[in-house]
Design goal:
alpha+beta; 4 helices
């Protein structure tokens, strides 16, 4: 199992940050590897909404199924992620800090099959990816 936590302060209020966590076209601008997001349910963004994400990492393509499990606009988002090599819970918490937002991202991953054996080796790479992604998010929102 892998647990990761990244915290950044973004020079914009939560109302400006939150859309970057939920709108596919904005997600693709900062989330490395995300190539496409296709909704699998109708009704827009809501608890229970599911989508299929096409991710490309190191030349490999994979499909990740996602489901929104908690949604509190401009405050929190929790998404369940599943594919053949891992299950994960990805959570974002946004806290207003004056004219800025403190964004905390936590990722808890349970690896499957052979990936269980490699989980200790890839933990550092996952942490660096998350840190890089949130730094891109911060830059993108602040340029806004």
């Amino acid at each position: 199992m892998g647990r990761h936590r990244v915290e950044v302060v973004i020079g914009a209020p939560p109302e400006r940050v939150f859309p970057f966590l939920v709108e596919p076209e904005l997600l693709k601008q900062w989330m490395s590897g995300l190539k496409e997001s296709r909704p699998l349910t109708e009704g827009g963004l809501r608890v229970g909404a599911r989508s299929e994400e096409l991710v490309e990492e190191d030349g490999r393509r994979m499909v990740v199924l996602t489901e929104v499990v908690c949604l509190d606009h401009n405050r929190a988002l929790v998404v369940k992620l599943e594919n053949e090599i891992f299950d994960a819970i990805s959570s974002y918490e946004l806290q207003a800090a004056g004219d800025a937002t403190t964004l905390v991202h936590e990722l808890e991953t349970t690896y499957k099959g052979m990936m269980k054996l490699m989980s200790a080796m890839i933990g550092g790479m996952v942490q660096k990816k998350l840190e890089g992604d949130l730094e891109r998010l911060r830059s993108l929102v602040q340029r806004g």
